[in-house]
Prior knowledge:
By secondary structure, the protein is α+β, with helices and mostly antiparallel strands. The chain is 44% helix and 9% strand.
Amino acid sequence: MKRVTIYKDNEPLAEFPSIQKAAHFMKSELGRERFPWTIINKGIQDNEFYTHTNGAVYSFNNIDELARAKREPSKENQYSSSITTEFSRVEFIEFLSQHLEEIIQLKLQISDPRLKQYHLSPKGLGDDLYFLTESYHRQNDLYKGKYSMTDFITPQALLVLQQKEKKKLIFEHIVPKNLYLKMLVDKAYQENLTYEEIYKVLMKYYYTCTVTKEEDDSLPSTSMQEGWDGHNPFYRYQLAGIEFIENPKSY
């Protein structure tokens, strides 16, 4: 396999010496530079403001207020109206939060201890989270395949996707899901889990990225590296040297 060179800042996104045609196609399709760490770090480490690639601007300090403001109309009716073909992270996290709250409350009623433990494990809830993600994309006519649902994609993974070699790709959680799902389960057992808390946790940590299997192997699978401040969701990728861009969501 030929070596891929990734450039910084405003330099070209990628150079593939042996496959110039594919590189040109990727550049012309995306028309955007890689996601810069200077933007990622702003507001996450300093607790100020963070600009997501879809244009949404928020701070981690006001997520509770945002969640409360978004609870109208009622949770029972707010997702059954018109279908949109434009992805909204706020609406997406609302959808996940509503249904994950219902799922967790139902699973707490399981009488068999071992069965309850499995269904409230990161594996059990992680499967629920994936199927809810797919459900949201299908309901809103956004689904074009498994890898169209991730927030980000690496340049190398995009090339693999364009070559239709999906078996070489991984749907990856930028923050290992066991870390934040365990937070929610612990609160559920303490009987103080709320919709707002689920919303806050998912908004802060639930980001996904399409990566190659080789890139996935370079990441710790169930933990963040030493030194993580608990805020920066992209820390694991930053330390592993994995660059990514906004997913064009067209595959």
